[in-house]
Write a structure and sequence with these properties.
The chain is mainly α. The chain has helices at about 1-5, 30-50, 55-60, 65-80, 85-90, 95-120, 145-170, 180-215, 215-235, 250-265, 295-300, 330-345, 350-355, 360-365, 385-410, 415-450, 465-490, 495-500, 500-525, 545-565; strands at about 10-15, 20, 245, 370, 375. The strands form two sheets. The chain has a three-stranded antiparallel β-sheet with strand order 2-1-3. Helix 2 (about 30-50) packs antiparallel against helix 7 (about 145-170). It is found in: Membrane.
Length: about 575
Amino acid sequence: MEGGYQDTRWEGYVDWRNKPALRGKHGGMLAASFALAVEVLENLAYLANASNLVLYLSKYMHLSPSKSANNVTNFMGTAFLLALLGGFLSDAFFTTYHIYLISALIEFLGLIILTIQAWTPSLKPPTCDPSTTPSMPCQEIDGGKAAMLFIGLYLVALGVGGIKGSLPTHGAEQFDENTPQGRKQRSTFFNYFVFCLSFGALIAVTFVVWVEDNKGWEWGFAISTIAILVSIPIFFFGSGFYRNKIPSGSPLTTICKVLVAAMLNGCMSRNSSNAIANLSASPSFEPETNKEPEENAKQTDEIPTQSLKFLNRAVVYKPAHPALQCTVNQVEDVKIVLKILPIFACTIALNCCLAQLSTFSVEQAASMDTKLGSLKIPPASLPVFPVVFIMILAPVYDHLIIPFARRVTNTEMGITHLQRIGIGLFLSIISMAVAALVEIKRKRVATDSGLLDSTAPLPITFFWIALQYLFLGSADLFTLAGLLEFFFTEAPSSMRSLATSLSWTSLAMGYYLSSVIVSIVNNVTGNSGHSPWLSGYTINRYHLDRFYWLMCVLSTLNFLHYLFWAMRYKYRSAGAGARK
């Protein structure tokens, strides 16, 4: 009877009431679908404000354009970097279930603060019109009002980070990775996670941005507040279907312990009795019973692998300190983390290209004819192009491309994670080349029309910009979904949320790197006696085509760097390259 009960449980998982999770009752696509629905509302709440925040700060809080842009960059970068905190807490101390609920409440509190401030004139700087009183500059927000603004913003950033660090992992953990069907469903989940993320973004950059521009920012904040509030009961309604991974302690502690032990043991002189030999006799190599079956199968009671051999020195009979006693499993887990870091680093350049979608590409389109019939498209809504492309491509990829690739390659995945990421990186090269060619055409129109120094719209449709959005949107779909699944499947079970959070960290670092590259380009090109590439009275005086060619070259070098690491990487997860 007891054995039959064991067979019905998900080993290492519990339900929302901390009771053992049961097969047939907990997990599966139904449970994961709640995470997908929640992601639509969560990303709507976040992007509805982030995509148009620079206008709110400059027009209503009276910050200078540079301060407004820097604050928006800091806000978005901080939100994505805090995904690491959400992932760490999910792995170490709480379940992804609890981290989502806590983070959603924190974001809700931040949005409440921002909504109250937007609704209350006394909590904002006095209104002014600099065009009517140029001698009296507008009063910049300061003091307690500024504190209220930034407390609200960074509570939202903290909540967004916690959600990004927990929600993808929570959904992916609902599938049985020990069966081909479970792995295929998990792959579908990641594709539709990006689809839902884009669906929320679509509503944000169209409907909510229109409300903010035409009805007032207080209504925009109110919509975001309602969206994140509604997401909480939707997520909670799925509680009875979730299986939640039991936290297994701090992954950072394990990583630091192995690294410190390897260094200290390597510095100390050891006799032959303490060498890495006959390790099966050591009690530190007993398999850990709280691991999943797949990981128990990987446990080795012989010797560590020969890759990254310097870490093997962490495994000795008599370590430098008893607290530094390491198991082979711990050493192999740290090796896996170190091996995926180069893949992570290679995706930063792609996200640097994606940063252009919310900066120069928007400025380009704003200088063109943005009319669609009698409707004029606001610049803040122009990111709708990549969003729509992703929403179209995600189901096409999952239901047409992947089944075809599986038949052709006769493998379970059809296209491996690293191949998918590589396709995204290659598409980013094409997108930058297309962007450069479109900019050459746009400037030629400006020159021929005599509008180089004019802010009037150019007689060229903004649909030309859609070409670079098409390739960058496709690159984002391939890379983001591929990265999320790659980090989840390859990372040790005890570090999955933290590893998956690297996808968002790459995005944040891409935005920061974009700002650094722009500054370097302007400094270098401005020192040669000519005007900097990215400065001028209007964007028509920018040498934006040269900048895009530079990004194309950098992306090509990054792609070659990626190939170096990807071709040497050996998958550890089941199904990554398995035949059907």
